[in-house]
Amino acid sequence: MDNRIADITDAGQMYDVMSSYAGFDELEPGTGVPRFDAVVHFAAIPRILMTADNECYRTNVLGTYNVIDAALKMGVRKIVFASSETTYGICFADGEVKPDDLPIDEDHPTVPMDSYAMSKVCNEATAGSFQRPSGADIYGLRINIVFEPHEYQDNFSAYICMENYRLGDFFACIDARDLAAAVEACLRTDGLGYQIFNVSNDDHSVNLTTSEILERFYQGMPVKRALGERETLHANDRLKRMTGWRPRHSLRDCLDDPARA
User: Fold this and answer.
1) 146-147 and 137-143 beta bridge pairing
2) Fewer CB within a 10 Å sphere, N or C end of the chain?
3) By 3-state DSSP, what share of the chain in percent is helix, strand and coil, each rounded to 5?
4) E-only strand ranges, the chain
């Protein structure tokens, strides 16, 4: 498959991409343009402070509308799109904001305070609005901060000690390989309609236990259930239960193998 470069904010380009060949090999049978089985939409301005705020919002909201609209009209029945942990209004907040309760699951209120989080909340509403009349499967992933394997080697020793810096992400993260596996699990799982899933690894990204995190940063906050001593506060139970996905990687691997830290 070849890379196609297109502007997601241009509806015409999205219709062209969804109705075009994906690579030169598809020309060989002489049977016309194949149809896509699924679309994974991760294209976006990925955070605040990269562009003007209104441009971040415009690109992400209009882009997601165009991608889903074009995909459905071209017969695609499975769409997986990137939402964000920022929708809960804690990451990128002006000042320290605490969640209503812990662990933070998909039923927690979405209360964004910035253009990026606003765009992701809007994208979730857009996806749900497209799903209802179409009956297609459209799944949104509220992705925590992503780590690639090389970053363990390069950055882990300093990163795991930055407890205060991790507060906005609930001390959670997701390994890029586990994120890819989450997408694959969503693509394999049919019939769920419209769903939103938190995506995070099973454990914390800092060198603290759950009880230490609760005592230091969330004292007196409601905790909805018993938590394991390394259990993530960005609850990933729904994705596991509904798709069979299981994360297999952890930043803590570096603690177990000091040569990697």
Assistant:
1) unpaired
2) N
3) 40, 15, 45
4) 39-41, 78-84, 137-143, 146-147, 174-175, 194-199
The widest CA-to-CA distance across the chain, in whole angstroms, is: 67
Greater confidence (35 vs 251) lies with 35
Q: Record the tokens describing residue 101, joined without a space.
A: 């309760």
The CATH number that domain 11-260 falls under is 3.40.50.720
Contact 126, 64 (CB under 8 A): yes
**Which residues lie across from 126 on neighbouring strands?**
none
Contact status, residue 36 vs residue 18, Cβ threshold 8 Å:
yes
Q: What angle do CA 62, 65, 67 make, to 5 degrees?
A: 110
For 191-248, what is each residue's pLDDT tens digit?
Answer: 999 999 999 999 988 888 999 999 999 999 999 999 999 999 999 999 999 999 999 9
pTM of the predicted model over 0.90: yes
102, 218 in Cβ contact below 8 A? yes
pLDDT greater than 80 at residue 30:
yes
